[in-house]
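ARCHIVE CARD
Drawer: 12
Card no.: 0347
Subject: one protein chain, sequence and derived structure
Cross-reference: see card 0346
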Amino acid sequence: MSRRTVTAALTLVAALLLTGCGEDGPPKGPVGPPSTGSEAPAPSGGSPFWVDPESDAAKQVKEYEAQGRTEDAEILKRIAERPVADWPAGDDPVPEVTRAVRGATAEGRTPVFVAYNIPHRDCGMYSAGGSHDAQAYRNWVDSFASAIGDSPAIVVLEPDAVPHIVDGCTPSQYHDERYGLLAEAIVRLKRQPRTRVYLDAGNPAWIDDPGKLVEPLRRAGVARADGFSLNVSNFQTNDTVKGFGATLSGLLGGAHFTVDTSRNGAGPLPGNRAEAWCNPPGRSLGVPPTDRTGDELVDAYLWVKRPGDSDGQCRGGPAAGTWWPEYALGLARRAKA
């Protein structure tokens, strides 16, 4: 989700209070039960998804090895050797999408993408940006889809876009346009014969009543998608997310969903602390990516958030979306496997 002095921090808090946006905005605000530890990690070989050999984590492993930090390198392979979603950035997604599709095709695997470029993205907060207008977004999505071509792919569509309508953070004058753009994006992406699309629906600690999401998701075209995505960039446990997802699914006629397990191995930061969604300490990797979920409604556990990318300039982190090796190493070191 892209990725300040005391004065800047106070300004941000004031802005959030004035607009009605709470701390549960992107990259989402966790408040929930601790991890039960009841789910065994999926085997790395059990994933059909593509592993990027040029990821920041893979480069960091090589750097650690060159420095003689062999133990750290081995630990970080828990990220580097597992599939993580690709977030094409900038005005032209084609080079990045093409690179991932080619790499995945050569290995007979499926790339996972995040389409994150909606106008007025993130309400001007940590991950502000996106296309400058509606037509630019349509063009961007068209290029994105065309670059996928006939290859298999999964696309998580626009994290936060629908929940920010629901929580009031996105100004009302943009709602109709956003609904239309999301619906159009789903239709365009689904023209690709082997592309699966999951429209983002936030997480249980952000929009705690699934019923509030039903009509917005419908207006955004979820019926034409393959389902919805949950827990993107957040830390809610699988049990919590699956319970929420099952309820939402029932309200949407049985829609399937995916769960971001990239950093939820230890659950959310306890104690309802400020900015609990932003680089919280003590977290760990969750269940590795797999389509063998054991739940008929859950199509896949995915690492949508790239473990080790900062959530924003909080708790000593760099800008949102920037690789932070120390945080990545902590996530990996605390993981069960």
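Annotation on reverse: DSSP finds ten helices and six strands in the chain. Strands lie at 112-115, 153-157, 195-200, 227-230, 257-260, 298-302.
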